[in-house]
Design goal:
single chain; 186 residues; alpha/beta; Rossmann fold; 5-stranded parallel β-sheet; 4-stranded mixed β-sheet; 9 strands; 42% helix; 22% strand; binds guanosine-5'-diphosphate; binds adenosine-5'-diphosphate; ATP-binding
């Protein structure tokens, strides 16, 4: 069996990572999306074990201490991390595994998984990024401010990653994402 691959998709909050990846999995159900652990409160409609594993700070710290996370980071006041076990199992089974994570965690993957393909999603402009976060309407004013403060520094790091995709027109960005993921030699 061929070895699987790890694909990391990163970029600022609100840039459209989730939207792009939801469309991608509809077209390619064979892809495996890693489910992260987080200490953030669930948003309305989010399901335990499907969108995230929602855990307490104590539980998260235990997972870190037990070395159960492939990477983790603190983002806007909460912890987020990738449980190792399922990712490793799926890769061993030959699947393409996708991580949707923020920039600090994506950098760490470079050390733990140097063969990972790391993709950075850029907004067309910072103003459009702010508009998208507001339209989504799921974050408090304070959470929006934290995300925007962090966004500029994140965008400045885009060149550290293997590939950059501007998510202006959604369909165009999706086609580019597909071509990059599936053009890889297996
Ligand atoms: N490092 C890391 N970041 C994660 C993980 N899971 C999610 N994130 C990132 O954490 C950030 C905040 O996620 P979330 O609260 O769901 O907000 P949203 O992405 O703005 O909808 C986003 O940039 C996610 O990509 C993870 O396991 N590790
Ligand atoms: N190409 C696009 N053009 C316009 N709006 C978009 C585009 N991509 C995503 N959006 C919208 O932007 C908002 C944030 O997208 P989301 O996927 O939640 O971002 P992220 O997962 O990166 O935080 C959502 O309301 C989504 O519908």
């Amino acid at each position: 069996m061929q070895a699987g691959k790890l694909i990391v998709v990163t970029g600022p909050s609100g840039v459209g990572k989730g939207t792009l990846l939801r469309s991608l999995i509809q077209r390619h159900p064979e892809l495996y999306f890693s489910i992260s652990a987080t200490t953030r409160q669930p948003r309305p409609g989010e399901i335990e074990g499907q969108h995230y594993y929602f855990v307490s700070r104590d539980k998260f710290e235990q997972m870190v201490a037990a070395d159960e996370l492939l990477e983790w980071a603190e983002y806007a006041g909460n912890y987020y991390g990738t449980p190792c076990l399922q990712v490793q199992q799926q890769i061993q089974q030959g699947r393409l595994v996708i991580l949707e994570i923020e920039v600090v965690g994506a950098r760490k993957i470079n050390q733990t998984f140097p063969t990972a393909l790391r993709i950075f999603i850029l907004p067309p402009t910072l103003a459009e990024l702010e508009r998208r976060i507001r339209v989504r309407g799921q974050d408090s004013e304070e959470a929006i401010a934290r995300r925007l403060t962090r966004a500029q520094a994140e965008i400045d790091a885009a060149d550290e990653f293997d590939v950059q995709i501007v998510n202006d027109d959604l369909e165009t960005a999706l086609i580019r994402l597909e071509s990059i993921i599936f053009a890889r030699p297996n």
